[in-house]
Design goal:
Elements: H1 5-23, H2 25-54, E1 65-68, E2 77-78, E3 84-85, H3 91-99, E4 104-111, E5 115-121, E6 132-138, H4 142-146, E7 152-153, E8 168-171, H5 173-180, E9 190-193, E10 196-203, E11 219-222, H6 226-230, E12 241-242, E13 244-250, H7 256-272, H8 279-285, E14 288-289, E15 292-294, H9 302-338, H10 340-348, H11 353-392, H12 405-430, H13 435-438, H14 449-485, E16 495-500, H15 509-524, E17 529-535, E18 545-548, E19 563-569, H16 573-577, E20 581-584, E21 598-602, H17 603-610, E22 619-620, E23 629-635, E24 650-654, E25 664-669, H18 677-687, E26 693-698, H19 699-706, H20 708-742, H21 744-752, H22 757-789, H23 802-828, H24 832-838
Parallel strand pairs: 3-14, 6-11, 8-10, 19-24, 21-23
Antiparallel strand pairs: 1-13, 1-15, 2-12, 4-13, 5-6, 5-9, 7-10, 8-11, 9-10, 16-25, 16-26, 17-25, 18-19, 20-23, 21-24, 22-23
């Protein structure tokens, strides 16, 4: 006897399900498209979440990697090690850790933040347009520790990181393709990095962009090249300059706790050899420690930044999937009504309820499988589109979105869960028909009572979820508007921002003063320019320099934060960016090296340290080793770092009194600042042909870019909310249409007994509106409760914002009324005689 009856029945069920769907193309297409939308949206958002939060580095055995701290800090930190977890390492500490290593196969280090690099192919000089790349200094064993072989050429050798070694560079595969057209002849050729020659020795394999997720690195140079590469003083000998992220590969079977204890012994030995600046520093050192973390996913500061937004988007697409499943459930219930005679005949011929249930679930599983397959295509398209949209909105994180085992497993799991969500109840209801009554043509055993109650519950559930989704989207949209309309402290209209880099061509601060004077003079002379100013940091760039100030006669309390932001500017800077002067005066061209040292502070600085707004003439030092600075003016508070950042105390110093390398040119125009971009760029290159000109953008565009993440989340949430609203309206229309068809004889009797058309319409509309109002009543508290979980993403709003709650509820009510009107009108057009004859 054939022993595989279960397999044979499954094959029969699959074939029958295929034939059934083929005979009902409209139903099949609608159900598959609805599921594909829900599954595709879930898979797309999860693909982004996977790339940013979960995906392992494309290296050998990533599970063996260990991070020495999470590496979320960007930049360098000079001074004694602060008590607590040490997130960065100095070069001498890295050497000590590697030399005393016994539990690691090896330990590598990298520059914590990327440096902007001007790149030229030495044998093919550029046309004067700078090409910026992001580069890092790394230890010579960096690629060996990670297990990343060279795609072309070789990785670094130990000799490349020795004193006096020839400068070499390794390029990423993506940058090699983008900048050099994947030219294989580039290996062993010379490229100019910031005006200095380097030999290209290798190309990394495709997909590897470094160990810092979200920040792709274009090129790497050995640590010994740091002074030449960064055009700064050497960081290699200073044990108090923390600028390296360290990653190691554990030996097999070594516990993480044992390795952590070992490296902390080495750390304390290292710190004990550095003379303390005070007795308090000696005490603080005992509380300094290194925390080892699993390194399979690399370093990433963006995980903390994007964790909540991605979780919010995943919740949104999850709600969207549930609404889609409810819609398919409505379709299956309606279809089951039309198939009840088929089911009764099959049961009369001997089919058991379990057999019928299995058949219906097989049909649902086939729908899910087809919807999942279409969803994967939609997900790939959506994921790529979201990456491009994020880049366009200025919220880009450099990630490679590719499907892996997690994404495929999630798609299969979602498809299976969808089958249970939308298929189980209709299948159970359809398989439980009453045989005696179902064979009667007018029987309502499957079309009455339970099905109608269940359908109404589904509609209430849909409305509840859609209200919650719309309220969330509304809160995010209104929060974005609040950010856009807030008082930023500067005038964003008619301002052009230009990034330049005099460091990349090796100019010292003093010689650049003449360059700055000439640049400002020639740019100001351009038609349409009102003011031009230079600064070290650009508005809303996220970058800043800080220092601990000293106030004469002021003794800070233990642990009191005396840190302020410091910027170096030229006299017309405040006029160029539109930061108003509150008291005193602006800087003058006469504020030079021979004049009294002066500074301008913001109002937050005056409030924080002087407890009064009238601080003109007061003195302070912006670091313990500097001379006293006299406050000559106070400017209004401005959001100079980021729009969500609290305004911190800021000190502005005239660059002629304290020469620094400036990197941002701000130009205020009389009209459209964008029309000046080419003229300003040409002026800079005429003065210094090799000065790299980086990003050129208007200040308004920078403001929009700084809101890129908020705008992206608001747009996606709004799109999900609108799709959910559309699905709810379709579900309501379908369910009411089905109920009207089922109640046609009842409606005919009512009209035969004198019911008016308007009365019948209102009867159907009233039932629909009652369901919608019940869903709104449940959805509003759900939205408020969910809103409390994302309070950190809101600005100037509370989760229970009444305007948003009313607007979302009104939108759902209006759309539901429109969706219910057509079935209601159709109900009122039922002819009494037709209905009575049918009965």
């Amino acid at each position: 006897m054939w022993g595989w009856n279960s397999a044979e029945r499954l094959w029969q069920d699959l074939r029958y399900a295929g034939r059934t769907l083929r005979k009902n193309p409209v139903f099949a297409a609608t159900a598959i498209a609805t599921l594909a939308l829900g599954i595709g949206a879930n898979t797309a958002i999860f693909s982004l979440l996977n790339a940013v939060m979960l995906q392992s580095l494309p290296v050998r055995d990533p599970a063996q990697l260990v991070l020495f701290g999470e590496g979320s800090w960007e930049g360098a930190n000079a001074g004694p090690a602060e008590p607590g977890i040490l997130w960065l390492d100095s070069y001498p500490l890295y050497q000590r850790l590697r030399a005393q290593n016994q539990l690691f196969e090896d330990i590598a280090a990298q520059q914590n933040n990327t440096s902007g690099v001007n790149v030229e192919w030495a044998s093919r000089p550029s046309d004067g347009t700078a090409d910026f790349a992001s580069g890092r200094c790394v230890s010579a064993n960096y690629f060996d520790v990670l297990g990343v072989p060279a795609f072309r050429g070789r990785a670094f050798h130990p000799d490349d990181d020795a004193a006096g070694a020839n400068p070499v560079v390794v390029l990423s595969y993506g940058y090699w393709q983008r900048r050099f057209g994947a030219n294989p002849a580039l290996v062993n050729e010379t490229v100019m990095l910031n005006g200095a020659p380097y030999t290209v020795v290798g190309i990394t394999p495709p997909g590897f962009t470094g160990t810092k997720i979200g920040h792709a690195t274009d090129l790497w140079v050995p640590l010994r090249m740091q002074p030449r590469f960064m055009r700064k003083e050497s960081f290699l000998a200073d044990g108090r300059l923390w600028w390296l992220s360290v990653i190691g590969r554990l030996k097999p079977c070594v516990p993480l706790a044992q390795a952590q204890a070992s490296v902390n012994v080495t750390l304390q030995q290292f710190l004990s050899e550095i003379p303390p600046a005070s007795s308090q520093e000696l005490v603080d050192r005992r509380a300094v420690r290194i925390e080892l973390l699993p390194g399979a996913r690399g370093f990433s500061g963006v995980r903390r930044l994007f964790a909540m937004p991605l979780a919010l988007l995943m919740a949104g697409v999850g709600v969207l999937l549930m609404i889609a499943c409810v819609n398919v459930c409505h379709l299956l219930l309606a279809r089951a009504t039309r198939r009840h005679r088929e089911f009764s005949l099959r049961m009369a011929l001997g089919a058991s309820r379990a057999r019928l249930l299995r058949q219906l679930l097989t049909e649902g599983l086939m729908l899910s499988a087809l919807g999942g397959a279409a969803g994967v295509l939609i997900a790939w398209w959506l994921a790529q589109g979201l990456v491009r949209l994020a880049d366009y909105r200025g919220a880009a994180v450099t990630v490679v979105v590719t499907p892996d085992a997690r994404v495929i497993a999630l798609t299969a799991l979602v498809a299976l869960a969808a089958t249970v969500l939308f298929g189980l109840a209709p299948a159970w209801q359809s398989s439980g028909i009453q045989l005696a009554t179902a064979l009667k043509e007018s029987a309502r055993g499957i079309t009455g009572g339970f099905q109608q109650r269940f359908s109404r519950l589904l509609l209430v559930f849909q409305v509840t979820l859609s209200v919650a989704l719309l309220v969330g989207a509304g809160l995010l949209v209104r929060s974005l508007e609040n950010l856009k309309n807030m008082n930023k402290g500067f005038d964003e209209e008619h301002v052009l921002l230009v990034e330049i880099s005099s460091r990349s061509i090796g100019l010292a601060p003093e010689p650049t003063l003449a360059l700055y004077d000439e640049l400002i003079s020639r740019v100001t002379a351009l038609p349409g320019v009102r003011f031009a100013g230079l600064s070290r940091t650009s508005l809303l760039s996220g970058n800043t320099s800080t220092s601990d100030i000293v106030l004469p006669g002021y003794m800070p309390a233990r642990g009191e934060d005396m840190e302020v932001q410091v910027d170096w500017v030229t006299p017309a800077y405040f006029d160029a960016v539109g930061i108003p002067l509150a008291r005193g005066r602006r800087f003058l061209p006469a504020d030079g090296a021979d004049s009294p040292k002066g500074a301008i502070v913001n109002e937050a600085m005056a409030r924080r340290f002087f407890k009064t707004a009238d601080v003109v003439g007061r003195r302070f030092r912006n670091d313990p080793s500097s001379k006293d600075l006299e406050i000559v003016g106070v400017v209004k508070d401005a959001k100079v770092v980021g729009l969500r950042e609290e305004v911190r105390p800021i000190v502005y110093v005239p660059v002629r009194q304290s020469p620094q390398l400036l990197s941002s040119l701000s130009v205020r125009a009389t009209g459209d600042p964008g029309s000046l971009a080419s003229q300003v760029r040409k002026t800079i290159l005429d003065i210094r042909p090799r000065v790299p000109v980086g990003q050129v953008a208007t200040l308004r565009a920078r403001v929009e870019q700084s809101l890129g993440q908020e705008r992206l989340i608001a747009e996606l949430s709004s799109a999900f909310g609108l799709v959910a609203l559309l699905l709810v309206s379709v579900g309501l229309y379908g369910a009411l249409s089905q109920q009207v068809a089922q109640r046609s004889n009842e409606i005919g009797v009512r009209m035969a007994l004198g019911a008016s058309r308007g009365g019948v319409q209102w009867m159907v509309l009233r039932e629909a509106l009652m369901l919608v109002l019940a869903g709104i009543a449940l959805g509003v508290p759900l939205a408020i409760a969910a809103g409390r979980l994302v309070t950190g993403l809101l600005f100037g709003l509370k989760p229970a914002d009444p305007i948003t709650l009313v607007a979302a509820s009104a939108a759902v009510l209006a759309v539901a009324t429109l969706a219910a009107y057509v079935p209601a009108r159709r109900a009122s057009s039922v002819h009494p005689m037709t209905a009575l004859r049918y009965e």
